[in-house]
Design a protein that fits this description.
globular; 9-stranded mixed sheet; disordered N terminus; alpha/beta; about 325 residues; Rossmann fold; about 30% helix
Length: about 325
């Protein structure tokens, strides 16, 4: 999971997925600026709890965190972009500000989700049977365990996130089948994350493990040393382990809207730190890039899914040397 601040994420027969990522809603609709937010599976208007002060999913209202911030949360904002219903009024207000600045944010978020599916499927087809996905966020549809189990039905999935609400939701909504576990952990503290008892019980670092850092690193500031954290994760894995990355970029973005968007996120649970191609590529040091390399999100191995023309970031996969 991405590091979200509270005040202000083999054996061929076994698949283990350890996740920490922002939320996604699979094929749900994309929110447009000013549109009434009513995602698939959300409680109907007038039924259940008020949508103005509660976040709901297909299994009932979400309980507000007791020790979390009262302002916007980046995972719940992302859920809103994708048409989900795991969000509160403050999240929706901040997300609407972003949508006014960048009206195609929802399309870009869907492109990121499609990339995740392609990358996870490709890693599983390569024979990787363990996945550490950091920045899992809020579960909805098209979660990692669902994708991986299409290739390896006996997969084991461990989701990790820093955010209390994301972890609580994941524990409520994800399967309790002995092969799916939810862990609270922090990307900025990779040694603690890897040493968590549930992580240690679920994955074997002596076998290849795919590390998924999808739409999370751009919430870690340079001062928090994200490259060092990724290098520590790399060093903990064996040769052949994939790293999957997607990251917002400043390349080609007009400066003023970018600054306005960053100002909105500065008031949320985590700042937004888009980076140029060269800085994103540094996360893949020590890896052999899988074709086509580090490219725009929608251009990474398109497989027939809708190819969104809007792409505000880079995506790629590397195999540990």
């Amino acid at each position: 999971m991405p590091p979200r601040r509270q005040s202000v994420s083999p054996s061929y027969r076994q698949v283990t997925v350890v996740c920490c990522r922002l939320a996604d809603t699979g094929g749900q609709h994309v929110v447009a600026p000013g549109a009434r937010h009513q995602g698939a599976g959300c409680p109907p208007p007038g039924g259940g709890s008020s949508r103005s002060d509660d976040a709901s999913g297909g299994r009932g209202p979400v309980t507000a965190p007791t020790d979390a911030e009262q302002g916007p949360n980046v995972a719940r904002m992302y859920d809103y972009y994708l048409g989900g219903c795991h969000n509160f009024a403050a999240d929706r207000a901040a997300a609407e500000q972003i949508l006014r600045i960048f009206p195609d944010t929802g399309i870009a978020a869907q492109a990121n989700r499609h990339f995740l599916r392609r990358a996870v499927r490709h890693a599983a087809e390569l024979g990787v049977r363990q996945f550490l996905d950091i920045g899992a966020g809020l579960p909805t549809q098209g979660n990692v365990h669902e994708i991986v189990r299409q290739v390896a039905p006996d997969s084991t999935v461990v989701y990790v996130d820093y955010d209390e609400v994301a972890v609580t939701h994941a524990r409520r909504l994800l399967p309790t089948d002995g092969r799916t576990t939810v862990v609270r952990g922090d990307l900025r503290r990779p040694d603690e994350l890897l040493a968590h008892p549930d992580v240690r019980a679920a994955i074997d670092l002596a076998r290849p493990v795919a590390v998924l850092l999808v739409a999370v690193l751009h919430f870690v500031t340079d001062a928090e040393q994200p490259w060092d954290a990724v290098a520590r994760l790399r060093d903990a894995t064996v040769s052949g382990s994939p790293l999957v990355v997607s990251h917002l970029t400043t390349d080609g973005a007009p400066p003023l809207p970018t600054q306005q968007g960053q100002a909105v996120y500065q008031r949320s649970s985590a700042p937004l730190v888009p980076r140029p191609h060269a800085d994103v590529l540094r996360f893949l040091d020590g890896y052999d890039l899988v074709d086509p390399g580090l490219v725009r999100v929608a251009e990474w191995r398109p497989d027939g899914e809708p190819r969104e023309r809007i792409s505000h970031g880079y995506a790629g996969m590397g195999l540990r040397r």
